[in-house]
Amino acid sequence: MTHRAVVLLSGGLDSSTCLAWGIREGLECHALSFDYGQRQLQELNAARAIAKALGASSHRVLRFDLRAIGGSALTDDIEVPKHRTIGEIGQGIPITYVPARNTIFLSYALALAEVIGADRLLIGVNALDYSGYPDCRPEFIAAFESMANLGSRFVQTPEARLQILTPLIAMTKAEIVRLARSLGVPIELTFSCYDPSESGEPCGQCDACLLRAKGLEEA
Amino acid sequence: MTHRAVVLLSGGLDSSTCLAWGIREGLECHALSFDYGQRQLQELNAARAIAKALGASSHRVLRFDLRAIGGSALTDDIEVPKHRTIGEIGQGIPITYVPARNTIFLSYALALAEVIGADRLLIGVNALDYSGYPDCRPEFIAAFESMANLGSRFVQTPEARLQILTPLIAMTKAEIVRLARSLGVPIELTFSCYDPSESGEPCGQCDACLLRAKGLEEA
Which residues of B touch A63 (CB under 8 A)? Predict the structure, then answer.
C-alpha cells in the first residue's frame, strides 16, 4: 500500500531534499508551503519550481500572517545577523527563530493530512548543523507526533498512527548536500538565504547562507 | 507575581466564561481570536464585545484561511447537521469538527505567549457536554503542553514552564452557565451557533444551539 505524505516545503535545500527522499521512498508526496509574512518570497518561488521539478503529487501554498505576532528577524523589522564565518554564529536561540513556527507549520500539515487521508508528515528539520532552534530537535518532533495522534481523527485508528518522518535530522549539511545530489535535487533552484537583496541575490552572510556554503564546500 | 495569559476567545459562552475566570484568578489576560474562514462572523463580533466588556488587557484577531484545507461543515460547503433534540446528536467525530483546529489555535497562542512573555494559555475546551471532538480532551491538552514546552523558548526555562489551563474541561453546560453568571459574563453578548441566518439569528437546531439551550435551561 502506498502511503500518502504531506511534505513541508520551504524551497530551501533541506526541505527540497526531504521531498526528493519521500518520492524515492515511494510515498505519494503532497507539498505544503507557507506565505506567512516572511521578509522575502524568493523561497516560495523556489518551492514552486522544486515541487514541479521533483514531481510532487500536489503543491499548496497557505497564507497567514505571522507579522501580526512578530518577535523574529524573519517576520519583524529586526536586522538579520550577519557573520563572516561559521564560528561567529552565536549560542542559544537566535533572533531568526520564529516563535512556534514549526509547531504552526506541522499543525497545518496535520489538518491537511486529515483531509486528504495522509498518514505521514515529512519535515526537513536538522538538529546537527544548526541546533539553535528548539523546534528542530527530535524530542520536539516526537512530542508533536504524540499530540497529533491524540488531537485528531487519528485517535480513532490506533492501528494506523500518523508518523512524522525527519530523514535529515541527524545529518551534517555536507551529508544533506550529498544526499540531494544522489537524489537528483536541482540544488541551483533551491533558496536558503534569510535576507536576500531586492533583486533576489543571497546575502552570503546570514546563518543560512554560511551553513549552505559550508555544506556545499565539504561535500 | 502576576502571570500573563493568552486566552483563546471565540465569542461563545465557554471561551467567554474562560476569560472571565482568568481575570478573576488575577491573570493578566490577553485575548486571541481567529478569522479562519468560518461560515459566520457573528462570533468575532461577539468576541470583540466580550473582550471589551470583561476588560481583557488586549485583544488580537488573527486571519488565516482554513477553507484552503476544508474538510468541515464549518469551513466547507457541507451542510451543518440539525436536530430536534440533544438525543439525536450522533456518536463519533461530527462533521462540524474542523481538522486540527485547536492544535492550530493553540500553536498561535504559543507563538503569541513567547512574544509577549505569557506563561499561561487558557482554552475553554469541555470534554463532558460535548466529547465528540478529539481536540477537546484532557489527554490532548496535556500532550500539547508537553510539546509546547519542548518546541519553544520555554525549553530554556524548565523552572517556568508554560501551563495550559482548562477550567471548564470537566463541567456540564449547566455548570458553565452558573459559573458564567457568578462571574458576571454578559451571556446575551456571547454567540455559539454554527449556522446562523443571514441576519445573524442563531438557528436553534445545531449541536451548539441545542447544548447551549440545555445548559441555560438546566442552570
Answer: 64-65, 68
* pLDDT tens-digit map of B152-187: 888 888 888 999 999 999 999 999 999 999 999 999
- Smallest CA–CA separation between A219 and chain B, in Å? 30
Closest approach of A19 to chain B, Cα-based (Å): 20
Question: CA of B90: how far to CAs of A115, B130, B212, in Å?
Answer: 21, 11, 17
pLDDT at A34 over 70: yes
pLDDT digits (tens, 9 = 90+) for A115-160: 999 999 999 998 876 657 888 899 999 999 999 999 998 888 888 8
CA dihedral A197, A199, A204, A208 (to 10 degrees): 80
Minimal CA–CA distance to B148: which of B98, B112, B101, B97? Answer: B112
Cα Rg of chain A, angstroms: 17
The share of chain B scoring above pLDDT 90, in percent, equals 53
Residues A144/A106, Cβ–Cβ less than 8 Å: yes
Q: What is the dihedral of CA A192, A194, A200, A203, to 10 degrees?
A: -100
Q: What does the alpha-carbon distance between residue B144 and residue B135 come to, in Å, rounded to a whole number? A: 10
CA distances from B101 to A151, A197, B187, B193 (A): 9, 37, 24, 17
The dihedral over CA atoms of A73, B104, A130, A6, expressed in degrees to the nearest 10, equals -120
Question: Whole-model pTM?
Answer: 0.89
Cα–Cα–Cα angle for A72, A76, A78, rounded to 5 degrees = 80
- Mean pLDDT (whole number) for A162-190: 95
Question: Which ipTM value was assigned to this complex?
Answer: 0.86
Residue B39 neighbours by CB distance under 10 Å:
16
DSSP letter assigned to residue A167: T
* Cell triple for A96: 531568526
The region, left, alpha or beta by phi > 0 then psi within -120 to 50, assigned to residue A14 is alpha
- Kindly list the residues from chain A whose CB atom is less than 8 angstroms away from the CB atom of residue B152: 99-100, 103, 134-135
Domains plus CATH for chain A?
A: 4-218 (3.40.50.620)
Dihedral (CA of A113, A59, B105, B201) sign: negative
